[in-house]
Amino acid sequence: MKVLGTAIAILALTAAPSIAQEKGVLDPAGYVSGFGGAAWTAGNSTGSVLFEGGVRVAPHVMVFANVGRFADLQADLVPTIDATTTALSNSGLGVTGTGTLPAWYGVGGVRAEIPANVHVLPYVLGGIGAAHLSPTAQFTYSSGTMPDGSAPAIGTDVTSTLVSTGSYTAPPSSNAFMLMLGGGVAVPLVPHWAVDVGYRYSRIAADTTLSATGLNTNVMTFGFGYRF
After folding, report:
1. DSSP-based three-state secondary structure for 118
2. In whole angstroms, what is the distance from residue 7 CA to residue 25 CA?
3. Structural domain of residue 209, as residue ranges?
4. What is the distance between the alpha carbons of residues 62 and 56, in angstroms, rounded to a whole number?
5. Vertex 180, ends 177 and 186: CA angle to 5°?
6. More confident: 169 or 24
7. Is the C-alpha dihedral spanning 193, 199, 204, 208 positive or negative?
8. Prediction pTM value
9. What domain count does the chain have?
10. Rounded-to-integer distance, Cα 48 and Cα 71, Å
11. What pLDDT is stored for residue 226 in this prediction?
12. Residue 221 burial (CB count, 10 A)
């Protein structure tokens, strides 16, 4: 009996850390993760980075906050550029327009994890926040006479001249409401560390000078994080 009691005690002591570790994996107190990925909006693809952290507020439920950046949502700036080049062409001035539309954003919300098993941890999330949009356009000269009467060399950047003569009004930087929905799967590799693959949909209520409707982005995320 003494030997049996000793064996049971040893098994209990060795099982306790394992149970605690499994609980920590399935329902951690919090997490921090970094993500990279590709984003698609209005037929344009661009890069995306995201840093996120969360803390548990209920079993398998966390509140999270993140900050991220879309490198260039320029497809949504194209209608503004095209309208300018068409108007100038109608007046006899040929220019070529390009543009960039990077966006920084911050979002906070709720993330719910599904305790499937210790090897695969699916989750869904939703949140709201704000995005800072910084549109930049550039026009290069092709043909015709500039509004100030000049005729620069082909390929010259004439953006500042068009702005100063009132032929083009550059969209200002702006802040806009943002909604984010998504989900994914965290796969633990070693204690506390996991890889994360997911999808996120975002809608940015941009000013109508940038887009007639909200800016919609679809992002595939690939990340690595610490669960504690």
Report:
1. coil
2. 28
3. 2-227
4. 4
5. 155
6. 169
7. positive
8. 0.78
9. 1
10. 6
11. 95
12. 23
